Amino acid sequence: MKPETINLTEKFSHFTEHWSPKIVGEVNDSYVKLVKFKGEFVWHHHEAEDEMFLVVKGRLCIRFRDGDLWMGPGEFCIVPRGVEHMPVAEEEVHVLLFEPRSTLNTGNVRSQRTREQLEHV
């Protein structure tokens, strides 16, 4: 299989919904996901998985119980497993997630924002 180039701007143009991750690639046992955030998500944590948030466009705040972390385009953070957090985006932000296939977007919480089945774009 020949590798292909993936254009993030083009892939983000294929969807408009917020808080609904889309799969754009796989690396070993992990997915590369794209997601658009706007507003507040839910407080949650992941028992078994770390999460990586890479901001592609916009400004993202990840709230932790002991303070907020702000990121802009080209910046990323890794949230260790077990750490409670809540992503917040005042305006729409485009984010690339890199996380194990088993990672559920709402972690230990089930809500209307939980996405058990993810689409490929």
Short description:
By secondary structure, the chain is mainly β. It contains 1 helix and 8 strands, in the order αββββββββ.
How are the SSEs ordered, and which strands pair?
Layout lengths: L7 H5 L9 E6 L2 E11 L10 E7 L2 E5 L2 E5 L4 E4 L5 E16 L18 E2 L1
Parallel strand pairs: 1-8
Antiparallel strand pairs: 1-2, 2-7, 3-6, 3-7, 4-5, 4-7
Provide the residue-averaged pLDDT: 92
Uncertain segments are none
What kind of sheet is the major sheet? Answer: 8 strands, mixed
Count of distinct structural domains: 1
Number of strands: 8
Give the topology string: H per helix, E per strand: HEEEEEEEE
State the share of residues found in helices, binned by percent. Answer: under 10%
CATH-defined architecture: Sandwich
State which percent range the strand residues make up: over 45%
Can you tell me the CATH topology?
Jelly Rolls
User: Any idea what the CATH superfamily is called?
Assistant: Jelly Rolls
> CATH top level?
Mainly Beta
The chain-level structural class is mainly beta
Q: What spatial form do the alpha-carbon principal axes imply?
A: globular
Give a written overview of the molecule.
The protein has 121 residues and is mainly beta. It has one domain (8-101): Jelly Rolls (Sandwich), CATH 2.60.120.10. It is built from one helix and eight strands. Strands 1, 2, 3, 4, 5, 6, 7 and 8 form an eight-stranded mixed sheet that branches. A hairpin with a 2-residue loop joins β4 and β5 (67-71). The two termini are 19 Å apart. The model has no long low-confidence stretch (mean pLDDT 92).
